[in-house]
Write a structure and sequence with these properties.
Strand content: 25-35%
Largest sheet: 7 strands, mixed
Strand order of the largest sheet: 11-10-9-21-22-23-24
Helix content: 10-25%
Length: 521
């Protein structure tokens, strides 16, 4: 029996026992379980959290759910049996938003765990566990954070999410590529990838999210803790930059707007639009404080960036370039856009947190593909921060001027574990004149494939500021943040194709309060 159905029957039994009062709002007649995609929570503040679900009876057939609005009941409780309700209400699941439900529950207590659930007719969702952020002036003793990214359905199981759920984190940070835009619409992870059925329309992106969110292990990770999320490229299309895709499609802006709307419809997010209905301009960058222990600066490095430097004629997307590319030195080029840059600088300037975690998509550490013996040497991938070196320096300068304590950069995108020291000049050793500005931890992918480990070892030789690299393992990062230090564990799966895969600790790093740079322990 599948996990969502089993949970449904368990909750139905509770209802039969009188714990849940029968509701007056009927679910779609003649249909099956409406919570096939599970539930989720996220965007935690000291007094609130966003709850999410989507009414969908068949993940592969949205048309089976009638195109009418449903009144969905929700409850938040202190206990799993829901005998001590602290908040409840109803929310509309509208067909215009794919019958998704977003409830921003207010008036909660800081630093407290809660249980939540949804109900439609006699159907009861799985009960999720969530929590609020600590009070603004408090100093929590610890934060347990799981970090994940890049989960292409085609390239393996979601065993990493099963292990994330078992780790019982306080918070999960997902750094992009929650979906990939292509692959057959099927509910089993295949033995091998088939490049077909690329998503372009709103209906197709909705179907892609339904496919991914049908996975029981991914649902379990959402049940375990609140998430903070951002997107990368594959939520829309590979290596897009602002309003330009690989195909140079004149209609790409419409595709991007559809993809952004579908992202919102399937994530526990507060919606910020410049204009009502303008999902093409949906704001993704966010800031979250965990008391005075940590501040999360959550970035969007896709929507506002300059197009790729010195790309090949006739197409968009990424390529590798040398320093002969004059565009790399153009101060007008930006990765984040000027408004987001100013917002980030303000966030650094006002931060009172012990640790400043910059949660974003792609590695900031320089990563030359060729040895650098003299100025002008090197070859760089222009989709990452190496393609925007002047913008990277502006970020480093803003960080230095602000005095923000203990910056840690979190990254994904490249399907490789990396631990790196960030410096103003990556081509010189760290010194008093070229200090380590921040520490960067890049997580590998949940499933998506990477380069051979032998090539990654060559990268380490050519980029000595990167202290560790592992590209042959899929998995996630688990971080313990305390006032004294942050410990980061690189967790690798034994076999990504096996949903029951075991895991192993590949490497562990510590960063001490007041001392930038990772030390392997």
């Amino acid at each position: 029996m599948d996990a969502p159905r089993r949970l449904f029957l368990q909750h139905a039994a509770l209802a039969a026992g009188g714990i849940i009062l029968p509701g007056a709002h009927a679910r779609p007649a003649g249909t099956s379980y409406p919570f096939s995609l599970g539930v989720a929570s996220g965007s935690p503040l000291p007094d609130s959290v966003v709850l999410w679900t989507r009414i969908l009876n068949d993940p592969l057939n949205a048309a089976a759910t009638p195109a009418v609005a449903f009144s969905v009941r929700w409850e938040v409780a202190h206990d799993q049996a829901f005998t001590r309700i602290v908040a409840k209400g109803t929310a509309s699941a509208l067909p215009a938003l794919a019958h998704s439900v977003h409830v921003d529950v207010r008036g909660l207590e800081p630093a407290r765990w809660y249980w939540y659930r949804f109900m439609l007719g006699d159907a009861v969702s799985p009960a999720g566990r969530t929590r609020t952020a600590p009070a603004a002036q408090s100093m929590p003793g610890a934060l347990k954070l799981a970090v994940a990214s890049c989960q292409h359905w085609e390239f393996g199981s979601y065993a990493a999410h099963r292990h994330i759920a078992a780790a019982a984190p306080d918070l999960v940070a997902f750094l992009g590529d929650y979906i990939y835009e292509w692959g057959p619409y099927q509910l089993a992870h295949p033995a091998s990838a088939v490049r077909t059925a690329e998503s372009f329309s709103l209906a197709e992106y909705r179907a892609r999210y339904a496919q991914y969110k049908s996975d029981a292990d991914l649902q379990a990770a959402h049940l375990a803790a609140p998430w903070i999320v951002t997107w990368d490229d594959h939520e829309v299309g590979n290596d897009y930059a602002a309003d330009r895709d690989e195909r140079l499609d004149a209609g790409f802006a419409l595709r991007r707007a559809a993809a952004y709307q579908a992202f919102y419809e399937h994530m526990p997010l507060r919606l910020v639009l410049a204009r009502p209905g303008d999902y093409g301009g949906m704001r993704m960058y966010q800031r979250y404080d965990w008391g005075r222990l940590a501040r999360f600066h959550v970035l969007d490095d896709r929507q506002y960036r300059a197009t790729h430097a010195c790309g090949p004629a006739g197409r968009g997307g990424s390529s590798s370039v040398t320093r002969a590319c004059a565009a790399l030195r153009d101060p007008a080029r930006t990765m984040l856009g000027r408004e987001q840059e100013a917002w980030l600088a303000e966030g650094f300037q006002t931060s009172k947190a012990r640790w400043n975690l910059i949660a974003q998509q792609t590695p900031m550490a320089q990563s030359s593909q060729l040895p650098i013996a003299r100025p002008g040497d090197g070859r760089f991938w222009n989709d990452g921060w190496d393609g925007y070196p002047v913008a990277r320096q502006r970020l480093f300068e803003a960080l230095g001027k602000s005095g923000a304590a203990n910056p840690l950069v979190l990254a994904g995108d490249v399907h490789t574990f990396y631990a790196s020291d960030l410096q103003k000049d990556f081509n010189r050793p760290a010194s008093k004149g070229n200090p380590v500005i921040a520490t960067e931890f890049c997580g590998t992918s949940v499933t998506s494939s990477s380069r051979p480990q032998a090539r990654t070892l060559q990268y380490l030789e050519m980029n000595r500021h990167t202290k560790y690299g592992r590209s042959d393992k899929r998995g996630f990062m688990l971080m313990d943040v305390t006032p004294e230090k942050t410990t980061t564990v690189f967790v690798g799966l034994d076999d990504v194709r096996n949903a029951q895969s075991g895991k192993a600790t590949l490497a562990t790093f510590e960063v001490a309060n007041g001392k930038a740079g990772a030390r392997q322990v």
